[in-house]
Amino acid sequence: MKGKFIIIVGPSTSGKTELVKALLKKVSNSARLISVTTRTRRPEEKDGVDYVFISRGEFEKRIKDSEFFEYAEVYGNLYGSSRKVLDSFLRHNAYVFAIIDIQGARTIKFQMPEAYVIFLHPGSIEVVHERMQKIRTDISAEQMKKRMETARHELSLAETFDAVVDNRRGHFDQAIESVIKILEAL
Asked: Could you give phi then psi for residue 170, rounded to 5 degrees?
């Protein structure tokens, strides 16, 4: 079996993680490719579930060992995806979901044109700002400004991906169903 690689992208707080969690429950024979990162684990996160957390030195060693098929630096932290894990998942699952930043998704799409990239759209930049203020209380005003600039840029790229799924406030169930319809059509 050769599974389909589905990449979920979108600005911070667009609901990517919750969407993938819901899809894993609703879509049989699916798996999630967990990104490797050097960023500090947040209290609510679990190593190996949300991310694989490693040191910068270990990450750089894995780059040299060609473990990653894509990696990028985002907000000063490294993120990457394991080639070996993806290949195994694609052999054993109908769908493999990954949450990857836009830069990484573009790299993957270039290397793997068969990957399908879905942009999860939160509705507006104001929604991103509101959600970020609620969720990210640990960042400075300068960091918030930088994240909002990044989100604005990411929203401008939405239409450049294979599909755009709306995840406005109160429409999460419809977003899940939209992605399931996309999967059925692939």
From this structure: 85, 5
Task: Give the SS3 label for residue 97.
Answer: strand
* Model confidence pLDDT, tens digit, residues 47-90: 999 899 999 999 999 999 999 988 988 888 999 999 999 999 99
Tokens linked to 99: 């949450």
The rounded average pLDDT for each run of 10 residues, N- to C-terminus, in the chain (186 residues) is: 92 93 97 95 90 96 94 90 94 96 89 95 90 78 89 95 92 96 96
Which residues 6+ apart lie within 8 Å of 121 measured at CB? 10, 14, 155, 158, 164, 165, 166, 167, 168
> Do the bridges between strand 77-82 and strand 68-74 make them parallel or antiparallel, or are there none, so unpaired?
antiparallel
Residue 62: burial class (beta carbons within 10 Å; 0-12, 13-18, 19+): middle
> Torsion-angle region of residue 153: left (phi > 0), alpha (psi -120 to 50) or beta?
alpha
Q: Which structural domains are found in the chain, ordered by start?
A: 4-185 (3.40.50.300)
pTM above 0.70, yes or no: yes
